[in-house]
Specification:
single chain; mainly alpha; 241 residues; 75% helix
């Protein structure tokens, strides 16, 4: 393999054939459209850099990934399912839940902008509205009032007057509240199994045997018998509707 690599590399180095050179520079634009395209590329790169934060804070991803981590801890499985699998499942479920919102953004903002029917500012304004409506449907008025008060804003007459700086944190703490409530409910049946197994081992005098080693198979068996993944995914998706 090394000899083959040498035969492929050295003739290129020893030959007089010019190698390509990559340069970066600033040149004078021939038309205003060239500047607009450059600014659009910079804006796109900026959006891609903050895309993970947008995904975490403005979609259903937060609730799902927190619930799945609670489920793993309740079962007593430290590394199973692995983090990559939990994040991947949460990501695809997020796309499933957000599909109507993404379709509305594509129809009302992206496609008219690509066909040059609306400006960039109007496209951004249209793209915000479906996400705002989704977050407002999932957020309590109490959480919105909290951030309006802390921001020292005047009480709005309608939710449409609320800025995203108020809606996003209110939506996030509401998602965490619901996720923790679901996690608490998930803990109850598995906690009962741990208590029963610990009581049985104590009554038998087997104090040196860790109860977790005995209760873990029973918790997994219970989760499989009740079709736990089906119930949890159904409950999570239905909670957004």
């Amino acid at each position: 393999m090394l000899g083959l690599a040498g035969l492929l590399v050295f003739p290129v180095i020893g030959s007089t054939q010019p190698l390509p050179k990559i340069t970066l520079g600033v040149d004078r634009a021939s038309s205003p459209k060239d500047v607009a395209v450059t600014l659009e590329i910079l804006a796109l790169l900026t959006v891609l850099s903050v895309a993970p934060a947008i995904l975490l804070l403005m979609t259903s991803f937060t609730r799902m990934v927190v619930v799945f981590h609670f489920l793993r801890q309740a079962l007593g499985l430290q590394q199973m399912p692995p983090n990559q699998l939990i994040v991947g499942l949460s990501l695809f479920l997020t796309f499933f839940v957000m599909r109507p919102v993404l379709s509305e953004i594509n129809d009302k903002a992206l496609q008219p902008y690509l066909s040059e029917q609306i400006s960039q500012a109007e496209a951004l304004q249209r793209a915000q509205q479906p996400i705002r409506d989704f977050m407002l449907r999932q957020t309590r008025e109490k959480d919105l009032a909290l951030f309006v008060k802390m921001a020292r804003l005047e009480r709005p007459s309608s939710p449409d007057q609320l800025p995203l700086s108020v809606i996003v944190p209110a939506f996030v703490i509401n998602e965490l509240r619901i996720a923790f409530q679901i996690g608490f409910l998930l803990y109850i049946p598995f906690l009962m199994i741990d208590m029963i197994v610990a009581s049985v081992l104590m009554s038998m005098g087997m104090l040196m045997l860790p109860p977790v080693m005995i209760s873990l198979p029973f918790k997994v068996l219970l989760f499989v018998l009740v079709d736990g993944w089906y119930l949890i995914v159904t409950s999570l998706v239905s909670s957004f509707r």
